[in-house]
Amino acid sequence: MSDTPRPGPRLTRRGVLGLGALAAVPAVTLVVHEAGSSKSKAAGPRAPSASPSQPHSSPAAPPVVTKGGGPVPLVAGKVLLGSYLALSGMTMRQSLELRDRQLGRPQRLINLFYEWTDNLPNRLPDLPERAVPMISWRGTKYSAVNGGAADALIARAARRIAQYGRPVMLRYAWEMNGFWFPWGGAKNDDDPDGYIACWRRVHRIFRQAGARNVSWVWSPNWHSDPAEDWNTPQAYYPGDEYVDWVGISGYNLHRESPETLFDGIYQRYATRKPIAVTEVGSVDRGGSTKADWITLFAQWVQNRPAVGAVTWFDTDTHPGYNEKWRIDTDPQSLAAYRAMATSERFSA
Question: pLDDT tens, 79-94?
């Protein structure tokens, strides 16, 4: 990843997502199941289905939330659309200006990544006036949090976010059901309860520090690895009173449909919480493949009323990985994304 300036510390793409061995890992399909049910197939950290996953008819839609979200509320029928934006050779301000020109609209949600020990932002001058920051804050080992050793660090982070003074989405310790991050259950004695205790402790310290401008985004990966009964996404859920948005990461790497990537989480939580697609992107397989997938994704969101936020992984700066996730890799993809971005559904 390049060293272009941006409002906050940068992580490598490998550090953000743990995508180092994508091409070599076998295929999986997410199985969201209760503890004690049969196991899903094991797989690598982000290996979706190797064979095409065709869109399919969804079951009858259950009642879904039409409000909620905390300080960053769900706007009924609308989506906050934005991105993680890091374009080679461009500053954040330049990247935002380019996307404004291409899309004919500003970004409404900006995903920013911070290390566990970084100062979280108390000002973000490069962001558009109406843009909401989504702070993706890396976690750490559970023992460091639950034993109290990190209380001062957490309180400092909370005070800085409170000083920001505007609503933010805080995506703490995401993709905990994967093995690729230090805060994943697989690297903490296979202990989802330890993760829940961490989340609740961080939440409590933020509240005590006066950071009432935070919408809490709990965001698992679309499939679990290891695919064991103890490691299902719901095993890590902190509880409704501690979560404002339920997020999900999912990438079209091996021709997965949006249904394959996102319906498991949607069907489980859309009756309780607004849904945010916190990381999404698509491989370009030539022709109109990427544009077609963007159109499919827009249709998926159109048919899922509880989805209220989307951040595309809009970057070409991942070192050692050939895929360019940015939205303008070809004119067809940019046109498909612009059609989505300028539709009524994405106009929050």
Answer: 999 999 999 999 999 9
Q: Which CATH number characterizes residue 329's domain? A: 3.20.20.80
Measured CA to CA, the distance from residue 113 to residue 120 in angstroms comes to 10
Q: If we measure between CA atoms, which residue out of 54, 50, 53, 28 comes closest to residue 41? A: 28
Both structure tokens of 252:
């079209």
Ranges in the chain, pLDDT < 70 = 1-62, 320-321
d(CA 196, CA 142): 9
Query: 265 to each of 108, 129, 171, 306, how far by Cα in Å?
Result: 23, 31, 16, 11
Phi, psi of 311 (to 5 degrees): -125, 115
In a domain, 121, yes or no: yes
Tokens, residue 299: 């249709």
Give the separation between CA 180 and CA 313, rounded to whole angstroms.
18
For residues 239-263, b (16+ Cβ closer than 10 Å) or e, as one string? eeeebbbbbbbbbbbbbbbbbbbbb
Q: How many CB atoms lie within 10 A of CB 31?
A: 15
pTM: 0.85
Q: How far apart are CA 303 and CA 345, in angstroms?
A: 10
- What's residue 318's pLDDT? 75
Residue 156 lies in a domain: yes
Distance CA 260, CA 147 (A): 38
Q: Which residue has the tokens 């023992």?
A: 143
Residue 8, in any domain of the structure: no
Assess if residue 149 is contained within a domain.
Answer: yes
- DSSP letters, 185-223, are GGGTTT-HHHHHHHHHHHHHHHHHTT-TTEEEEE--BSS
User: In this predicted structure, what is the pLDDT of residue 324?
Assistant: 84
Q: Which domain holds residue 187?
A: 64-346
- Going 62 to 32 to 297 to 244, the CA torsion angle's sign is positive
| Domains of the chain: total | 1
> In 10 A of CB 194, how many CB atoms?
19
Residues 6+ apart with CB under 8 A from 188: 141, 142, 143, 194, 195
